Amino acid sequence: MEGNIGIPVAMEVDPSGQGSLSSCFFDPRWDNSISMEQIDPFDSTRSSIVSSPVASSLGAGEGDGGMIKELIGRLGVISSGSSGHVSPQPFLGHMSTNNSTNGSSFTTPLNSPPKLSLSTMGHRIRGSFPPLSEDCLVPFATDPGFAERAARFSSLGSRDFAVGLDGKNARVSSSIVEGGDSWEGSSLSEQVHGGETGNVKKTQHVDVSAKKRKLVQRGKLDAVTPKGSEVSGGNNHTSTKKIKSCQAAEKEGSGKEPDEREAMAAREEKMQKHGKDSHSKQQEPPKDYIHVRARRGQATDSHSLAERVRREKISQRMKALQDLVPGCNKITGKALMLDEIINYVQSLQRQVEFLSMKLSTLNPRMDINMEAFLRKDIFQSRESILPTDSSPAHVFPYGLLPSHGTIAAISPVQLPENLLDAATTPIHRSPTIHFPHIEGFSTVPSQVLGVWEDDLQTVVQMGIAPNLQPISFHLGAGSTEPNHGQMKVES
Amino acid sequence: MRAQDKIGRHSQRIKLAAYSSMARAVGQRRAWSRALMLKLKLSDKRKNRYRWLAARKMKQQKTLRRGCGRILATKRNRSEKGSPSRSCSGVDELRRLVPGGEAMDLGVLLEETAHFVRCLETQVRVMSIIADCFP
Questions:
Q1: Region labeled Disordered — which residues (chain A) (predicted)?
Q2: Mind listing the pLDDT tens digit for each residue in A300-331?
Q3: Do A266 and A324 belong to one domain?
Q4: Closest to B124 (Cβ–Cβ): which among A339, A348, A369?
């Protein structure tokens, strides 16, 4: 039996040889041996913690859901006694769906008493313990010896139970056999390191990152040893954070740390909001598919999952649109939001039309061929380079001449320069505009004028500009300049 | 009357120029910009068919027509079979507003709408600056 393989090693290493603990570990009738009345609170939690992995190993399958539920209920009661805000009820419902994950990856039970049960149950329940504060660790922090032993047991358990793990098992077992002295010393240093790198935003979930992945399991194994010592170090409120950071530091080699941290942070935010086991989507670089967690009380078939993913995507986009459209903060609901967006788009289009009318009245009437040049802009697929020098700007006023040839009473050459400057500088310097295509837009006014610029350039080249004749436009059309009517956007 | 018509046509041309420059600035990166450019090309082609400039570029237009025909056919197919479920009337209205919105999923449609709204805002800002520059 798997449990029997691990247990003798534990017995050797255990110096104090606490009979109760080992007997609990051995005892297949673990639930009978544990009772709240016999043992003091700490021992009960300890034994329950230690034996729950045994329970999972000793054939915990579909049938043991009841025992495990009871255990978690007890843990919840204990932790609620200490922290005062835990309800084990939400977790029980989840367990019924997790029987298949029993005996899978198993991590240290020392993170917190609820986490122990999580580790036995598998991945999903772990997420259900966010409402528990780090105060749960306080009772454990005071017993360094227990912590050490429990960590060893847990690592043993993971060695035995996490059959899927590769390679690291031997290392873990060897580290256990080495003895605890060096362990504690190294763990203290690691603890310090963990404390330095501790992030405030990380709270409970050390093991939250996808349990299905062997890499994570390997990382957990790596972090088993320092975890126990950290708890034994006696940190109270930040212990979980330090554990997490230490584990994260341990995982640095795997290179998945930032992704996991982000995923964990995102998940924690969500869970802190909902307070339930609602994991957000997970996206890991090594795998191509998206892990989606089924929320509590929801269907888990692929269709509804995909539907939920789609709905979440749409709600995300709606939120983004809400930020764009002014005055939409108070509006809730898709229909009203959509109406608001439609109104805004229509108002913007009306503004464009109004401004185009304003511009048409400001500018003198263009010759009909200018329209052809504008169309040419659309026909051409290439785009011309915006001339940076001011020489085309000089010919700009000529482009505005009406067909009868009189020099329009437009402001002199300085106008187009001001125009370009005014049009480009606000856009360039404006910090509020953060569009990806902004460099393209900076040339929009120049593009509008660019058509004239190109043709007027040809006009200048042909030496007709001084005459200021409308024929210049025709000439511009008729010329076969290579850059005729090309537009290019500066990038 | 004629002046007003002229002004109307002039403003229409300026509006088209604004939209086409907006679409060109975005390029092929967005679905709405591609759809908008295609729409402007097609409408232009139809209007200019008998213009003297169009006559000059008949060859280019022929190639364009062939290409546009292919593109039109594929677009029609896409909209026919890929027309997503119309949840409510607001979505239909949005599809009409955003160029190319007929053949998009709701998620894609919302994303394109966000980008389109930002581009429209920029366009309005640019045009108001241009209008302010003139005395």
A1: 178-286
A2: 788 889 999 999 999 989 888 888 888 888 88
A3: no
A4: A348
Residues A337 and A379 in one domain: no
**Which comes out higher in pLDDT, residue A431 or B13?**
B13
Q: How far is CA A407 from CA A180, A365, A398, A450, B47, in A?
A: 96, 13, 8, 20, 31
**Is residue A319 domain-shared with residue A380, that is, in the same domain?**
no
Q: Would you state the structure tokens that stand for residue A318, as one six-digit string?
A: 């709606």
Looking at the structure, tell me whether residues A267 and A414 fall in a common domain. no
Residue type, A22: S
What is the pLDDT at residue A352? 92
**In-domain check, residue A491:** no
- Say what the pLDDT of residue A333 is: 83
Residue A303 lies in a domain: no
Closest-CA residue of A relative to B64 is A379
**Under an 8 A CB cutoff, do B41 and A441 touch?**
no
Give the C-alpha distances (Å, rounded to integers) separating A440 from A422, B23, B27: 16, 10, 9
The answer to whether B83 contacts chain A (CB < 8 Å) is no
Contact A360 B14 (CB under 8 A): yes
Alpha carbons A45 and A72: distance in angstroms, whole number: 10
Domain end among A360, A394, A418: A360
Do A314 and A285 share a structural domain?
no
- The verdict on a CB contact (< 8 Å) between A435 and B122 is yes
Range of the domain at A380: 366-484
- Do A88 and A117 reside in the same domain of the chain? yes
Please say whether the beta carbons of A136 and A111 come within 8 A.
no
The percent of residues above 70 in pLDDT, for chain A, comes to: 14
Q: Which of A293, A326, A350 is the last residue of a domain?
A: A293
Confirm whether A323 is domain-assigned: yes
Mean pLDDT of A273-288: 49
Q: State how many domains chain A has.
A: 3
Two structure tokens written together for A81: 């006694």
Based on the domain organization, do A354 and A371 belong to the same domain? no
pLDDT at A27 over 70: no
Mean pLDDT of all residues belonging to chain A: 52
Report chain A's terminal Cα–Cα distance, integer Å. Answer: 68
